[in-house]
Design brief:
single chain; Arc Repressor Mutant, subunit A; 2 domains
Length: 145
C-alpha cells in the first residue's frame, strides 16, 4: 500500500464516515479545494479509479465505526434495491451495476436516488458505508471485474 500522510489518513477516515468533500473541509478546517485535492491524491496513490472505490477502500482500511446497520427490510427496501445497495457497497458504478443486472444505467441511478432518500443518506460514501455494514463479507462482484 502507498504511504499516506497523516492528513490523507484524516481525509480517508472522514470518507469512511460518509462525509462529503465539503463536510471533510469543514471538519478538518481546510479549504474545499484542498479537501478535493487530498481526495484526488488518494485516488492516485491507491491506484483507485472512482469515488466508490475510494469509499470502499476507506471503509475497509480507516477503522470506520463498526455499528451494524439494520437489515434492509427494516427500511422497506425492495429485493432489487437491496441488490443494488450491495453492489454499490462493492464499489461498482451505476454503469457496472446496470451491466451486471441487465438494466439501464439511468434505472440504476434512479434506484440509488430512491434508496438514499428512503435511508436518509446524503452521500455516496454514506450509502457505501450502509452497504458494507449490511454485507460485511462483500463477496460476489467487485469493481475490479
Amino acid at each position: 500500500m502507498a504511504r499516506l500522510t497523516s492528513r490523507e489518513w484524516d481525509v480517508l477516515r472522514s470518507i469512511a464516515r460518509g462525509r462529503t468533500t465539503a463536510e471533510i473541509a469543514r471538519e478538518l478546517g481546510i479549504a474545499y479545494f484542498t479537501a478535493r485535492t487530498h481526495r484526488r491524491h488518494l485516488l492516485d496513490k491507491l491506484d483507485l479509479h472512482s469515488a466508490a472505490q475510494l469509499t470502499a477502500y476507506a471503509i475497509e482500511h480507516a477503522s470506520a465505526a463498526s455499528r451494524p446497520a439494520p437489515p434492509a427490510s427494516a427500511h422497506g427496501l425492495t429485493p432489487r434495491q437491496r441488490e443494488i445497495v450491495l453492489l454499490v457497497g462493492r464499489g461498482l458504478t451505476s454503469k457496472q451495476i446496470a451491466r451486471v443486472l441487465g438494466l439501464s444505467p439511468a434505472t440504476v441511478r434512479k434506484h440509488r436516488e430512491h434508496i438514499a432518500t428512503r435511508l436518509g443518506l446524503r452521500s455516496l460514501s454514506a450509502l457505501i458505508g450502509y452497504a458494507r455494514r449490511l454485507d460485511p463479507g462483500g463477496g460476489g462482484h467487485t469493481a475490479n471485474e
